[in-house]
Design a protein that fits this description.
transferase; two-stranded antiparallel ribbon; alpha/beta; binds prephenic acid; aldehyde-lyase activity; eight-stranded parallel beta barrel; 2 domains; Chorismate Mutase Domain, subunit A
Length: about 375
């Protein structure tokens, strides 16, 4: 039988633990004061995602070893580290970024054909808001959903899963650019409405592809973020039209496009009035057939050096096989991507498009756990 004495005794124990925890936290924040001075001397940024991931992985392993659910402890440590970053940023007087670029980089960027997209023009990372979701800078974002919207039930199930696992934006193709004219071409406007409703139901902004100028208006009406597919990266008329769409744009890299060509395409959208552009690396054509495309992971740091725009990675289209998506997602965040775009499906074997690269829900859950240190 429990008694009030027992509760008092446990509370006393808790008081001791809290006392020790507080002392430890004070010591931790004192160490943060020391590291912030050391890092400032080396011009290192306040936040280090890689280090945070390492710390959280260690904590997760320790909790699992003790047979304890790691989630609440991981969440607490995330908050502690957020406070550490805030402390460091405050001490730097909110001016953590360098005010000038290295001369060699400036010189190289001056010769480029893109100006608005260039880091030369905008030294700080740009942040793009998709409703309440902020992409870029220190934010890390997960976009998830099916390759194509196939039915109300399918998109609702995917939205529920995306929300439950902590994704930030729901994806779903409605106008599908298929290699064969005989393949499923998407549900069109009907699909857009289903996607919009699913997003509203679960409080997730939605992204979908726009393939042609005459679709821009209707896609912008029903979605929060407009996607330009790899095959349309150099459809300059479409890019011009997107400059006036009034919604942020995610621009996928063309199958054979260099990084500078990709940034020049971003420049088209920006020069025509829309500064809210997010870049998306989705694999390029190479000689190797082992994966659908070759994920150019090096594009992420290169883009981040040349441009202030957010850059995300689509490992699903790059790999074409679900087996590689988790590792490539981790790799994407490890090299500094601002987000990932993942294809999920309740029954990938029955998907009307891209089944082999779509994750079943339990595999998506495992992926979200694996990337959780970055989120
Ligand atoms: O290791 C660092 O660089 C720190 O600034 C410390 C710390 C932490 O709280 O442990 C804080 C912020 C960084 O994002 C990573 C880790």
């Amino acid at each position: 039988m429990s008694s009030s004495h027992q509760i008092s005794a446990i509370r006393q124990q808790l008081d001791h633990i809290d006392h020790d925890l507080t002392k430890q936290l004070i010591a931790r924040f004192q160490s943060i004061q020391s590291i912030l001075h050391a890092k400032q001397g080396l011009d290192w940024p306040a936040r280090d995602h890689g280090r945070e991931a390492q710390i959280l992985q260690g904590i997760q392993a320790l909790a699992e070893q003790e047979n304890v659910d790691p989630s609440p402890i991981v969440r607490l440590f995330k908050t502690i580290m957020q406070e550490s970053v805030k402390l460091q940023k405050k001490a730097r007087g909110h001016a953590p970024s360098p005010q000038t670029l290295p001369p060699s980089l400036s010189e190289a960027l001056e010769k480029k054909s893109y100006k608005l997209a260039s880091r030369l023009n905008h030294i700080e990372d740009s942040l793009v808001s998709v409703n309440e979701v902020v992409i870029g800078g220190d934010h890390r974002t997960v976009i998830a959903g099916p390759c194509a919207v196939e039915s109300e039930g399918q998109i609702m199930e995917c939205a529920a899963q995306a929300k439950q696992q902590g994704a930030h934006i729901l994806r779903g193709g409605c106008f599908k650019p298929r290699s064969s004219p005989y393949s499923f071409q998407g549900m069109g406007v009907e699909g857009l409405k289903l996607l919009e409703n699913a997003g509203k139901e679960y409080g997730l902004p939605v992204v979908t592809e726009v393939m042609a100028i005459d679709q821009v208006e209707v896609v912008a009406k029903h979605s929060d973020l407009l996607q330009v597919g790899a095959r349309n990266m150099q459809n300059f008329d479409l890019l011009r039209a997107l400059g006036k769409a009034g919604k942020p744009v995610v621009l996928k890299r063309g199958l054979m496009a260099t990084i500078d060509e990709w940034l020049s395409s971003a420049e088209y959208v920006m020069a025509h009035g829309n500064r809210d552009v997010i870049l998306c690396e989705r694999g390029i054509r190479s000689f190797d057939q082992s994966t659908r495309n070759t994920l150019d992971i090096s594009a992420v740091p290169v883009v981040k050096e040349r441009s202030h725009l957010p850059v995300i990675v689509d490992p699903s289209h790059a790999a074409g096989k679900w087996q590689y998506i988790l590792d490539l997602s981790r790799a994407s965040f490890a090299v500094g991507a601002h987000g990932i775009m993942i294809e999920i499906h309740p029954k990938p074997e029955e998907a009307l498009s891209d089944g082999p690269q779509s994750l079943k829900f339990d595999r998506f859950e495992a992926l979200m756990l694996a990337v959780s240190p970055w989120l």
